[in-house]
């Protein structure tokens, strides 16, 4: 007997009114909130897995998605598996369960290199530039898989990051932290990716440079490139995010638009410092 | 006049031999440093790779000489050089397929590759001695001198003569051409840039779609050319003896490390640093000092710091000093 008063038939045995065997086809919504994965351009769907074929699971049924031309941000405490979740969508993690789809195509079994050819760009957190090569050579190497003329793309990158044009013949390793990140993003943009993965693009740069980098990232997204990024600076990142994912211990804890998450008291208290 | 005589004597006995020897070391060290930068191990078989390439050049030279083909005043060996390079490339690309590729696929530690290269070294060592024998072979022909000491004395009227051997001139010219070609290739071509990118940051190179096996193949081909050229020039300048080439490994490694492993520019600088120090320290300075100093101060002894038998000690002393004070070498290579 349930305690739900609406289901209490109060002893009424009239079979024309109730079905004594009960219904088995009750509707039940899944998560009680919209998941928004239907038109996702890149989605890592219910990913479970860890490093190496025998390593312990780091991700547990974790779903990350980004829509076309939008910015999705993964935030969470240290060791929550933020970078791991993003690397999983790039094929750098052995998935035991789940799938990764790009524009509806299943790319779960592709190598990272093949995913680059499919239109994904990845900017690692560290050693993401060729330090001994000039800025221009870095961009050329970014376009290595392209056989067509990539001068237009290079001009676009220089338009986006004017400082790089100034320093085009300087060794990338001699640049400042923020400029290096611009080189790294520029290198990834050279393949004309449809989705760009950024692993903590603002790690180790000053707040002013960070704001500038975020502005640039928004500009990149405006050109129609989807952006999925992992960020330590959760508040600023969520402010520019169309979609935010809070991960805790390798699982989705909170999902929503950036504004929703910023307004969510639980998220504020646990991850944004009140 | 005395001052000029001193300069001429110095050039004759120190500068010119050291420049020639330095060019040979630089070419050898470039090969070592390229392998270190791209395949990430110290190739101990490099000296014997040079010996193999040179051996093929020697054999072709003899064959050409027997057919009466010569290169006029230049050594016939220069004509045989391309064949030596091809044979050497076949040998080391084959070695890579049979030996090194296996360890690359296992992602073996550099130390394991170093030991594997020592095995390769012994095999190549045996191969060369098996084919051409362990003895000294002379294969230089053509004009012996660009300027002989006697001609120079007659021309200038100085007491000291300056002799420039043809082989020394050729060594420098060929080395300059080879280095210019190499740097053009590394800095201007797509393949060369991809090699530098791979050497700089392997993971990012993979992400950029650079094929490592392709990079490795080009590296071996370039190394084969550099090793054969270096070996042939050394053989022309002195003589060809397999054991000397094995010994050359030591100053070559010293040059590469002093310059900074993985840095081509460093390899060249290192080659000249080692060559000049070896020659200056083992040179008897009596004559030059005799010209420069007033008679009262003229030295009685030879003023030779070390006997030439100990010349390898010089490269090692420099190696140790550099490693103590600048472990990444003069040109900021990778730490050993």
Automatic annotation (TrEMBL), chain A:
Gene3D superfamilies: P-loop containing nucleotide triphosphate hydrolases (3.40.50.300). The keyword rRNA-binding does not apply. Keywords: Amino-acid transport, ATP-binding, Nucleotide-binding, Transport. GO terms for molecular function: ATP binding; ATP hydrolysis activity; branched-chain amino acid transmembrane transporter activity. It comes from the Bacteria. SMART domains: AAA. The keyword Transcription regulation does not apply. Belongs to the ABC transporter superfamily. This is ATP-binding cassette domain-containing protein. It comes from Thalassovita mangrovi.
From TrEMBL, chain B:
It is found in: Cell membrane. Signal peptide: none annotated. Keywords: Amino-acid transport, Cell inner membrane, Cell membrane, Membrane, Transmembrane, Transmembrane helix, Transport. One of its GO terms (cellular component) is plasma membrane. The keyword Transport applies. GO terms for biological process: D-alanine transmembrane transport; L-alanine transport; L-isoleucine import across plasma membrane. InterPro entries: ABC_transp_permease (IPR001851), BCAA_transport_permease (IPR052157). CDD domains: TM_PBP1_LivH_like. The keyword Ligase does not apply. It holds the Pfam family BPD_transp_2. It is a multi-pass membrane protein. GO terms for molecular function: L-isoleucine transmembrane transporter activity; L-leucine transmembrane transporter activity; L-phenylalanine transmembrane transporter activity; L-valine transmembrane transporter activity. The chain crosses the membrane at residues 6-39, 51-71, 77-99, 111-132, 168-186, 215-236, 248-276, 312-331. Belongs to the binding-protein-dependent transport system permease family. LivHM subfamily. This is Branched-chain amino acid ABC transporter permease.
